[in-house]
């Protein structure tokens, strides 16, 4: 145990512990394996194995996808099919473990441990903290799937099951609800909430807690490898750690590229709907390039001057759009749907989270497996970002705020936007949102509400700003990992990763597989990183046990 005197920052830019903490004694110094220098007017400070291996591997991948688009498209398609079909049980089972682990932290004495030391105080207010959590954690996805997913599950459930050669070919969750609109709504909303509720936020919470605990309380670098010190000891500073951090870079970059691809297609669809802008790869490439340039400006402004301000703006706009749809739409129906959807979620949760013996293979593999791999691939990025802004919170406060409150807000968002579209179909006979492509469903739903041009424009702005905050935050995280845990590495490095993320998203969109190529890379990088997260739970338990002994 060490009683640390309060300091603002360590030489590596990480806040020093305040009060009593259980420091891990190690000879490793943050940045000791780094290579420093200047490239023209730009300085660099990079962790040699992680930066070089991840950077060269990703560049080789980009070159392969561009040089052999047909072959790479076929490989991507094979990857997606093989991993989702062969490892769906693993993704679903692992996500269940993460939820149970987080709930355990809330009710045990470990929840009393304070991140940053017994005397640490929060760096951000609740409003600023929540804004950054949502902008980083769910941004583009909420805009893309807020209408499309409830409507998709409702339609497939209402259509019932279909069999071919003894295998179900429909996409309905569980046993469907053939011909029963009320049951189809309940099942569709429960399936949607399942993908946006406790499970994804538990994945984020595990990684964020591990990073915050071992950096702020244990005095280790702010990198993924640090969480594994209780398991591997000083070996984490060698190739074991290099592999872990490199996997984290891959997962983060491809997870972000997928989100940027979804964001670009939705922004393109919205701009076409409003202004007649052509839909296609050229427009999407221009959108990604332009928004990456905006993200670059945000990167140069830093965390407080860039991401924090944009996150608060986005939270305000999202709240206004939510309130508008709630009040102008079928308000009483939406309020009732919120409550009934929560009850349906609780009712169907055991069946939806069952990892074995599923008959709804298209749903469990094509939806749930992909989602869990996507959230896991985002977890290094979102987890490290949450860790950066969560110092001073107790573990219980942290888990409740990161797990339960965002889950409820996601339920509210899906109930309002998805519920409005469902009401339009069931009560008004308006099926444009139901019939539209995924990226257009939001705008078709808004079409029949007042001020549709303004609200659709706000929706596009939200997609763009979520796009920017995700790119900016992701660049910050990848740069921290590839700088050996330094959070004050030269800004040009973060700019490099910001540009690189946009380039990877563009290449994958232009490849033969398009969006499926993005999804394939998410699922393939999420698989090995799931093992990393499972080990991380054990390491966090050991770390919290040591911190708890300080008070005993």
From TrEMBL:
One Gene Ontology cellular component term attached to this UniProt record is: plasma membrane
* Compartments, record wording: Cell membrane
Q: Which residues cross the membrane?
A: 50-68, 89-107, 127-147, 196-216, 247-265, 285-303, 315-335, 369-387, 399-426, 446-468, 495-515, 521-541
Q: What is this protein called?
A: BCCT transporter
Pfam families per the UniProt record, alphabetical: BCCT (PF02028)
Q: How does it sit in the membrane?
A: Multi-pass membrane protein
Which Gene Ontology molecular-function terms are recorded? Answer: transmembrane transporter activity
What are the UniProt keywords, alphabetically?
Answer: Cell membrane, Membrane, Plasmid, Transmembrane, Transmembrane helix, Transport
The root-end lineage is:
Bacteria, Pseudomonadati, Pseudomonadota, Alphaproteobacteria, Rhodobacterales
Q: Which family does it belong to?
A: Belongs to the BCCT transporter (TC 2.A.15) family.
Organism of provenance: Celeribacter baekdonensis
């Amino acid at each position: 145990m060490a009683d640390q005197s309060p300091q603002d920052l360590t030489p590596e830019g990480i806040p020093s512990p305040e009060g009593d903490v259980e420091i891990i004694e190690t000879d490793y110094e943050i940045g000791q394996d780094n290579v420093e220098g200047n490239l023209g007017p730009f300085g660099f400070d990079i962790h040699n194995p992680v930066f070089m291996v991840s950077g060269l591997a990703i560049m080789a991948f980009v070159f392969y996808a561009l040089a052999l688009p047909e072959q790479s498209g076929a490989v991507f398609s094979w990857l997606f099919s093989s991993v989702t079909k062969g490892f769906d049980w693993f993704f679903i089972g692992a996500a269940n473990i993460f939820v149970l682990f987080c709930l355990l932290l809330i009710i045990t004495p470990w929840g009393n441990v304070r991140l940053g030391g017994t005397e640490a105080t929060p760096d951000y207010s609740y409003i600023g903290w929540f804004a950054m959590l949502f902008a980083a954690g769910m941004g583009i996805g909420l805009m893309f799937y807020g209408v499309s997913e409830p409507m998709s599950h409702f339609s497939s459930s209402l259509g019932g099951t279909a069999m071919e050669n003894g295998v179900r070919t429909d996409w309905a969750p569980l046993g469907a609800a053939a011909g029963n609109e009320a049951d189809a709504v309940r099942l569709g909303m429960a399936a949607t909430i399942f993908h946006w509720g406790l499970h994804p936020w538990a994945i984020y919470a595990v990684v964020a807690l591990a990073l915050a605990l071992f950096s702020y309380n244990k005095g280790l670098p702010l990198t993924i490898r640090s969480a594994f010190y209780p398991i591997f000891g000083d070996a984490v500073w060698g190739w074991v750690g290099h592999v872990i951090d490199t996997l984290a870079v891959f997962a983060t970059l491809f997870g972000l590229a997928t989100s940027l691809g979804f964001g670009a297609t939705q922004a393109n669809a919205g701009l076409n709907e409003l202004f007649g802008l052509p839909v296609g790869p050229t427009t999407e490439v221009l959108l990604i390039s332009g928004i990456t340039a905006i993200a670059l400006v945000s990167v140069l402004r830093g965390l407080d001057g860039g991401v924090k301000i944009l996150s608060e703006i986005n939270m305000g706009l999202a709240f206004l759009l939510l309130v508008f749809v709630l009040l102008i739409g079928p308000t009483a129906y939406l309020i009732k749907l919120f409550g009934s959807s929560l009850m349906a979620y609780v009712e169907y949760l055991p069946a939806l989270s069952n990892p074995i013996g599923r008959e709804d293979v298209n749903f469990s593999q094509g939806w749930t497996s992909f989602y869990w791999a996507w959230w896991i691939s985002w977890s290094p990025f979102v987890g490290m970002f949450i860790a950066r802004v969560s110092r001073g919170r107790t573990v219980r406060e942290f888990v409740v705020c990161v797990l339960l409150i965002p889950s409820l807000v996601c339920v509210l968002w899906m109930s309002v936007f998805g519920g409005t579209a469902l009401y339009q179909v069931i009560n008004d006979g308006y099926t444009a949102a139901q019939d539209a492509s995924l990226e257009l469903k939001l705008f078709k739903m808004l079409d029949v509400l007042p001020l549709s041009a303004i609200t659709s424009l706000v929706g596009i702005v939200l997609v763009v700003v979520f796009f920017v905050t995700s790119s900016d935050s992701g660049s910050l995280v990848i740069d921290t990992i590839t700088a050996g845990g330094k959070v004050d590495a030269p800004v040009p490095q973060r700019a490099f990763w910001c540009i690189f993320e946009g380039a990877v998203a563009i290449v994958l969109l232009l490849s033969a597989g398009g969006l499926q190529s993005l999804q394939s890379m998410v699922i393939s990088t999420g698989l090995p990183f799931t093992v990393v997260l499972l080990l991380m739970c054990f390491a966090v338990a050991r770390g919290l046990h040591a911190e708890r002994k300080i008070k005993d």
